[in-house]
Amino acid sequence: MIKYLAAILFFSFGLRAQVPYNIARYAEVTASSFLSPEFSPQHAVDGRILLNNTGEWASSGDTTDWGYVRFPWIQFKWSAPQKINRIILYDRVNLKDHIAGGKLKFSDGSEISVYQIPNNGLAKEIQFETKTVDWVKFEVTDGKGKDLGFSEVEIFSAENQDFLSWVDPYIETNRGRYFFFITGQRPFGMIGAAPLTRNKNQNGGGYNYNETEILGFEQIHCWMMGGLEIMPALSDADPLKGREQWKSEFSHADEIVRPGYQRVFLRKPGVWVENTATDRVSMYKFRYTAEDTTRIITNLNGYVSNITMQNARVKQTAPHEFEGSFSTVNRYWGGPEEVEVFFVIRFDRNFSRLESWNVADDLGGVSARFPVKPGDEIQMKIAISYTSVANARNNLETELPHWNFEEVRDTTFGIWEEELGKIKVSGGTVKQKIKFYTDLWHVLLGRHKIDDVSGDYPDRTGGIRNGTFTKAEFKIRQLPRDKDGKVLHHMYNSDAWWLTQWNLNVLWGLAWPEVLDEMASSMVKYAQNGYLLPRGPSGGGYSYIMTSSPAVNLVAAAFQKNMLTKVPVDTAYKVVKQNLLPGGMLGDSADVAFYTREGYWPDNAGITLEANFQDYAFAEMAKKLNRTEDYNFFHNRAGSWVNLFDKQQNLIFPKNRAGRFMHSDPLSGEGWVEANSWQATWSVSHELDKLAQLMGGKEVLTSRLNYAFEKAEASDFVFEYSGGYVSYANQPGCSNAHVFNLTGSPWLSQYWVRKVQRQAYGGTDPDSGYGGHDEDQGQMGGISALMSIGLFSVKGTVDSDPSYEITSPVFDSVEISLNPRYYEGKTFKIVARNNSEKNIYIQAAHLNGKPHHSYKLFHRVLAEGGTLELELGANPNKQWGR
How far is Cα 280 from Cα 545, in angstroms, rounded to an integer? Predict the structure, then answer.
């Protein structure tokens, strides 16, 4: 971690032009002239932006009465060549002296004409293909006034010297959910702060790239948890009129977004906003460009994302601090009827007064007033807890006792750098690397801690269920600790674990086994508290989103890879078993009894296949633990999907309670869970040999599945729920391209995996990247990343001797760091020789120098460390891997 921090700190020197990756300040700055020392060219890189007559470069102007202007120039020169691809120009703030346009000249001989620079100091962004240069010069070609100059010039490196610089948070923000684009968060942090630009749940809610206004900054972006909105606003903004009063225009032109950090300029109040975070505390720095008696609003009422805030309480505790709580209710997908969030908010200066307002009979929020002048800064810390105000305060005092914003930001950068760097890739295109590390960011961003630094956490697993909601009993519990008093694991909020056997369970286990251990142990603890193994826990209680008991696969995968170390195995075994029987999370007790007796889930083939695979996962646990009776029962039940096989169409179809097929349309979603017969027949991952036998042989299965991919290719393998033949926009089809490996045609897996990765997941713009449909807290990112590195597990690593399937990676080299607590080896490396967009087929393989003829790589072998070398070519070698 230390060596990465050194690289970060080199580029890191605070917002006052101390924004990471802005290298203008490291240049020698010269100009044609300057008005006085107070307006020297060095002020064009001092970070004081949009301050009239302060921190500006101004030339010593020369004009004539007939309109002649001697246009100035400014130049930036480095001691070594630099790769750059973005420049931001900020004109002087006053409207009289205005640079309207000019030419950017580069040491490589190229030029870029620049037009319509705003005459108010707002950003003019110029993006271009990466150039390697020693210097950049801007020559003014048009302007008005006399003392022309810039408030600031920012020049951005394209060097990508660290892993986090490859992450692009904007990817698919136009179509994603509210809980992505969380810039103010550490991996799996409790607090997750980011701007709200479109107030809706899915399909472009949260931060939407297309929007031009920020409505507020939300501190919580969890599964069915949100709110605690703050916003700097003008003194005359009337909070009673809501977001319409305090919202502000912004521009991506001056915005900087990175994992753990954001900078944006709010045009309406004229405030630069920076944000970063620790695990449980968000930190803001506001820098003002105009004089005002500003108000910083804390909104605690109303709808946000997919919950509603109400029942707020606030108490001023110091001249610069207040504390309080609010309830989150009416969550879209159910869960506890009410979850209380506790907070402490502290400023680095006293407010002149603290005002409040009501919405109907409920407290709407508070606004802290501050007199400010141009250049003034105010810092703000927000700590939360799901247990008490006292614990929120303790979180603040423990995690962030100081006011050094840059230190927090750089530490957060270092944490992200270390986590993202656990898989190092080289080769491939720039676009592929951007997408890959953004995938990893998603994989490590979703799911959030809910426990305090004290070890307290909320338990809402008890209570009376009413549909998808629970009138929950609130308890405060303590995390289990080891003999040294250290907590064994954290507790988490989480979107559904539905079908994570094909993404997160596999990927986490490779490079972040401690995360797999944490998540599985947390779910077991939920079941110890409330009997049920969560599908998607929220606020310390249950939500009943999706179907069956998908956390079974999570726990089984951790167990089989020797990564279930934070809870007793016997405890985990017990709760998994009880959740696959009547009274557990698998489903209604009567339906579970029907499934056990009749061999299929009534009216639903999707739940049948899910339950079958979960039965298989548990049977494999029983097998390893020599629990013969359990193994026989669950192994037999795992094979009951055969009752739904339709020999007429060679596909699986749902049956009703009378035992009759519900319909004969293989593209219909009736009787499935967000899928259909074409998409989901292949998800009997544990018994593909039996499926092939029923179809008439592996050749028939291969032909039918290949037909499905051919039909789906024109739509980039992306369809909405239940639509199309193969859909990689949602979980049920995520194993399909890898099935060919297990049915004797590994070259088809190599072919279709590359196709899907490029077409469904290859986008790096705000409209595409994850199938445009259902990136559930990193699941589509997980499968995209696995496709990119050429490893997968159709069985989700739940079998007693877990293994991976090999396909050709998009990168020339992939190096996975192996956590020594869980692995014997230090690294596992995949080398792809002769790799290209056309050379996608594996010709030969060597494992640790010896020929490797199988598509399969056992986990126990990977755990020892080593190198897998792949020779790639443009034509399939149909003999390899069979």
Answer: 26
